[in-house]
Amino acid sequence: MRLDKFLSERTAYTRSQLKELIAAKKVMVNGVTAVKANQSVSESDEVRLEGETVRSLRTLTVMLHKPAGYVSATEDRAERTVLELLPQELRGQGLFPVGRLDKDTTGLLLLTNDGALAHQLTSPKKHVPKFYIAVLARPFEERYRELFAAGMTLGNGETCRPAETAAVTEDGRKVLVCLHEGKYHQVKRMFAAAGNHVEQLHRIGMGNLFLPEDLPAGEAFVLFDKDLGKVLNSETDFSALLRNLRKCSS
Ligand code: URA
Fold first, then answer.
1. What is the pLDDT of residues 93-150, one digit of tens each?
2. What is the CA radius of gyration of the chain?
3. Where would a tag sit more exposed on the chain, N or C end, judged by fewer CB atoms within 10 A?
4. Does residue 194 share a domain with residue 130?
């Protein structure tokens, strides 16, 4: 198969962009810089694009900065879906959201066409930590820390895994939350059970993968294997993250 075709089937780049990347010597085949877009390659060749190995399977995972007003679904009769936000070259590739963010929640949403990966990322056994910034109606109270850490019981009697929370801003309205599971409306229900109310919710990270600050709402980019590794093999330090967020907001 031609090198440009091989790459266009496995990446989000168009054939013309790939020709430019090949001309710019950004593609290597088995350790040798490729010079021609029509060079022949097969599944057994190791192809690297900008230093990253291009996977032989046609799986694709993207990070979207979800804006409010879109549902985390592939189709919906009444609502706009996150799929509608994807650029043309990322459509028709079987992408679906990994878990859900509520319609009014913003921030990091992964979409993939890799069912096994989605399963790993959402499996309760994996406990991938998810980091949220919530804006509360009333100031944070220190007792929330213990309530969340003890494994909270929600209004309907459902119990949650231990979670972490702390105030980010001095007025106590902006808080950081880390969950290790993904129940329906979980952050909102946890604060409701504590006697508060979430006015805004924004997901900033999963595992060790964070939403880039310069990624505008509504935009998406393709993740490389190393980014996925950050989601799966991570021990994110809640206190260090909190210190950083406090520094940025002071
Ligand atoms: N918790 C919520 O309440 N909503 C979300 O969208 C995600 C987590």
1. 889 999 999 999 999 999 999 888 898 898 877 889 999 999 999 999 999 999 999 9
2. 21
3. C
4. yes
Q: Which two tokens stand for residue 215?
A: 């990624």
Residues 208 and 148 in one domain: yes
Q: Whose CA is nearest to atom 2 of ligand 1?
A: 185
How many Å lie between the centroid of ligand 1 and the Cα of residue 185?
4
DSSP designation for 235: -
Cβ–Cβ < 8 Å for 54, 11: yes
| Backbone region of residue 135 per phi and psi (left: phi > 0; alpha: psi in -120 to 50; beta: other values) | beta
Domain with 42, as residue range(s), is 3-53
- Which residues are tagged catalytic? 102
CA of 101 to the centre of ligand 1 (A): 6
The reply to whether 161 and 145 lie within a common domain is: yes
- Length of the chain equals 250
CA distance 230 to 69: 28
User: What ligand 1 atom has the least distance to the C-alpha of 72?
Assistant: 6
The Cα–Cα gap between 38 and 193 comes to 61
Give yes or no: residues 76 and 119 share one domain.
yes
173 lines ligand 1 (CB under 6 A): no
User: Within this chain, do residues 36 and 124 fall inside the same structural domain, yes or no?
Assistant: no
Distance 216 CA to ligand 1 centre (A): 20
Claim to verify: residue 119 and residue 238 sit in the same structural domain: yes
Token pair recorded at residue 145: 């820390």
